[in-house]
Write a structure and sequence with these properties.
This protein is an alpha/beta fold. The chain has a single domain (2-119), classed as Response regulator (Rossmann fold, 3-Layer(aba) Sandwich). 50% of the residues lie in helices and 22% in strands. It has six helices and five strands. It has a five-stranded parallel beta sheet, sandwiched between helices. Helix 1 (11-24) links the parallel strand 1 (2-7) and strand 2 (27-32). Helix 2 packs parallel to helix 3. It starts with a strand and ends with a helix.
């Protein structure tokens, strides 16, 4: 069973994402509420995929991607969730090691489809 980390500072959005993913029954889902917690969990957790909010306290999703070890980058698909969807933001995310960029708002169905595609 694949393991997913959901890192977002919005309690409500994080809860909605976690509930949506857990309903699928295909994944073990864990949470982080800021960038520092996300980085710590990524370095020790053995995740297959991480959903990272761009704008988080402590560290942004980009900061997390830049600081995470090469071993984690090799093992974990890093996905950016963000309202910042301009091309320069996408380019910055790609350069940091983001595998996929999902602009907010997104539908739960779209999120599940993308995750299944990335983990297949």
């Amino acid at each position: 069973m694949s393991k997913i980390l959901v890192a977002d500072d919005s309690d409500i959005l994080r809860m909605l994402i976690v509930d949506t993913l857990e309903e699928e029954g295909e994944w073990v889902v864990e949470e982080a509420e800021d960038g520092r917690e996300a980085l710590n969990k990524l370095e020790t957790g053995g995740y297959d995929l991480a959903l990272l909010d761009y704008m988080m306290p402590e560290m942004t999703g980009i900061d997390v991607c830049e600081k995470v070890s090469p071993a984690v980058k090799e093992q974990t698909k890093l996905v950016m969730l963000t309202a910042k969807a301009q091309e320069k933001d996408r380019q910055e995310a790609r350069e940091a090691g983001i595998a996929y960029f999902i602009p907010k708002p997104f539908s739960p169905e779209e999120l599940v489809r993308i995750i299944k595609e990335l983990l297949s």
